[in-house]
Task: structure prediction
Amino acid sequence: MKSQTDITHLQAQKLLQLSLDGPLDETQARMIQQHLKDCAECCKYAAEMKNMDDHLSSSLQERWPPMNVNDAKSPSAIANTLSKLRNDNLKSHANITSNVGWVALVVLLIIGLVWSIKTLAPITNQIPAAVSSPEETIPILLPGESPLPTLTATSQGIQPTPTISIPPSMSVSLLPTVNFIFPFDLPTSPDRMTIYQQQLSLAVTAETARQIASQWGINGGIYSSPSEGMGDVIYNAMDGSRSMRFLNFPDQFIYQVGYVSPDYGSALMDNGPLPPFEDQVKIAINFLKLFGILDLPYQTSSLETERGVVGFIPQLDGYPVIQEIGVDRSNIGWIDVKVNTLGQVTMVQYSHHNFKPVADYPILTAQQAWDRFSKDVNLQHSRYAVLSPEQPNTYQAWVRSFQPGDNADLYGYVNSYQSDESASPPLVMIGDLPIIGDNSGMVPANLYEVNFVHAWGQIQSSSTDGIALNLAGWEHSSLTDEYITGTLTTQGGQAQLIALDRTISLLDPPLNIPDGLQVGIQGVVLDGDPPILNWKFIETGEIQFSYGASNSCGGGGSGGGGNLPNADLGGGGFASLNLDGQEDPVSTQAAEPFHTGDQINALSGIVSITRHLYLGGKTSDEIFFYPDPPRDLATNWGYALIGDNLSGIEQYQSLPVRVWGKVDHLDRGIIYLNVDRFEPIYPGLQIQAWSGTEQIVSVEGQDVVLFTTSGGEQYVLNSSLVWGAVNNVIGYLGDLIEIEGFVIPDNLVGGYPVLKDLAGSSPPDGVVDSTNFSVWDHTQDPSSNPGAVLHGNVTIDKIELAYDAINLDRCQASASEDPNMASWLYVQPMWVFNGHFEDGRRFITQVQALPDEYLK
Result:
């Protein structure tokens, strides 16, 4: 939900960019955290950095209802994580296109802060799977690869330079209780290496998307949608059996297969034995050669957290190009190819990279790089990651499989995609299955509404080498999807799910699913004795979380979620380059709007207090102030209140006050106001909670969210007046929800009183949380003092030179002309040290290889 107690979108983006140059201070980190937790639009901005895998992509197209986790012993790591999120003390708001569980994870990845959502609405269906990535496997170097076609200059006459032996063990300043053991001498290295710069493609258009999609066998419609928070357009090519989602460039996309021949539904499966990895590589290469995109020298790697995915890692001058540290596989690297049990390619993620050589520069030896890391207390030239021991990926999934001629009875949300060509009919789907026939009335006329329907008909072959449901009839359904966990077993020849509180029979169970599995199943429960589960998705197993971090154009993210107290953490960053003749980018920071000592009088807004907890029971409070819109004072800046005259202000947490004071100082987008006095705008006003439903109506020429309480009162939600209606709907229209806030006195819109909505949840819980302080617990914060949690011996297993590059997920074509983006596009050498603790935890550090004179 959009909160009015928020910094602006522009300031949030600036703070995210500043965080990449080094850790934000506590005030700035809290400001960006507060903004992201309440702002669906900026969460979407952040989410574009983390391209969703095939499951997450489909979850954005179909609403999944809240999970009903009935088995407390489910082995799923993500189930435990979501349970923790649901039980924390913070409410959130979601719009109709946002998967808020994903957004919560994105916020963790972006800023590395520990905050959680009290109620997630809607919640993704996937319990056992979390996203992570392994250490690189032994690379398979493919012979006979052609030289890098984009290179026009190479290093000449470079000879390896021997290095001295390293001591048998040593520690580093940042990790004083970790002992590093080197069982071998450090490797030799060249004196110099080439710096490269990535060249960006032109922006994708409907026409270029259509051309590329046609080359990949997709001859359906081109469907466009705005990318929230990024100012660009996302193009999707879809024909009902295959899809291609383009991200900013025509040569950056995700290709996915749905229900296609010869084995209908198999492409959506993720179970059964996979071909050996060597065969997966051959299958992937043979598939990619048809499209001519294997145009760089490369090595391949399997991914421990993604079944059957072959990662292709490009090479420059024989060195791998690395775009992450630890585990961060939700971005597109260069090429990722998914191969299923039958040896079919079902997904390709592709991001073209064109590297232009800049010049040769001297580099540090491995010894010098380790010395740099050893002394890099503030992690200004290095970064590190500690990962859990590698675990097997036990995740498996089944979906409903159909054959032409089958009668099908389906429940689900209707998705309709309007083609960019006005003459083309819309593509109507329930889940991943296209619908043909008379679907009049099935697609809501109102863009903001969704239909959960019961549809029936016969499966038939489609014109796109796939299948479709030839619709015989449909009806609105009062039933909803449930996610139920339990044990799958066979009783009397009937597959049944033994859940914690009930036993349910499965309709048309998959033939190849083992008996006795602990599973999570999504579907609709129909009446019967026992009840019958019309299921659509079954999953089991676990994919572990691990720490990972990566950078893109002007942004980056990191996060962790492992199950060990001393693993899945990390931090650090690289300094900007200072190459010969390279000028500093033009700053986009707005001119300072005030000077120290400037008087500010009767500024009205909302108070928000954050309490910090430290070791030893110490606490400190930060008081943020969010001026009322429309803001006339420094619209791109945030405000914090300081001084000795704030006693008693805590009673106005989340309530409107007026403040008088003088500007004390300005620091990186924050105006610190030394308060002379304050007063409540509405004495006696209290925050309340109401349950009710939402609808979108037009009032005085503007679409707004009208909230009708269970008692029949009606209010216009203030957030919809400021941020628009579509971004301020909790769950789906008609859901029973809860809003907490206060009615703004003497404020009417179209005759309706205006409710200042501070938070919302679905379903209602009757608890008012907005009066509580935000709490930031630093007592277990390893990033502030990793030496407090990391102990033991680390044996270094591998040391190598590599190139550090950003992924291009968030880059736009305009970045090539933006001087502020130039530094992000450089590709620079780095030293990578890989090792392990005695208990199997993995350690990685990456160190900039350029000498100090070439760094800022």
In short: The longest helix spans residues 26-38. The chain has a mean pLDDT of 78.
